Amino acid sequence: MRVRPSRSLATALARAEADDFTYPDVGATAGDLPAGYHHLHHRVRVGAGPGALDRAEAALTTWRAQTGSGLAVAADGPVAEGRTVVLGLGRPLSLVIPCRVVWTLHEPDRRGFAYGTLPGHPECGEESFVLAPDTDGGVWLTITAFTKPGNTLVRALGPGGRAIQKFFVRRYGEAIRRSVSSEPGTTSP
Q1: How many domains does the chain contain in total?
Q2: How many CB atoms lie within 10 A of CB 156?
Q3: For position 43, what pLDDT does the model report?
Q4: Quick one: which of 69, 108, 110, 151 has the fewest CB in 10 Å?
Q5: Domain of 151?
Q6: 15, 28, 18: which is closest to 128 by C-alpha?
Q7: Pairwise CA distance, residues 164 & 75, whole Å
Q8: In the chain, helix, strand, coil percent, each to 5?
């Protein structure tokens, strides 16, 4: 786990580009979650009406779930398979949270991606974000994760670490909902 000045996240990104994943089950959020991890599932309605799925995808793939939840983001562009991203928690010093996108999804009725942890991340595992419409025109974000502590400090937090994760997962959904509803001509969820 590393703490750096917030302004140096770009340097942390450059270092993380060469790193390997910290867990063997890369891509598992696309199917059955592996044993030996804490599993998280969270589903929230983020929008409704014509174009809501496209607006939600635009927000999701430009890191607005993360920035809208209060995290700093260093990435060389929008979500793309293989892209490394470094999140920063806190200012002026940031807890450095390096990840890499392991898969993306762009189907007519399902959009999203997953990223996995790299060395220095406080946890070990993967988190996915999938958008899908329902039959009533609502758009839902489902966040699925499998994680375990990535270091002794997080392990010592026990349930506190999971509470922090749940806090951010809820904020991710709220950030996407705000992005979708802030577009002109939209319907609130």
Answers
A1: 1
A2: 10
A3: 97
A4: 108
A5: 2-28+36-181
A6: 28
A7: 23
A8: 30, 40, 30
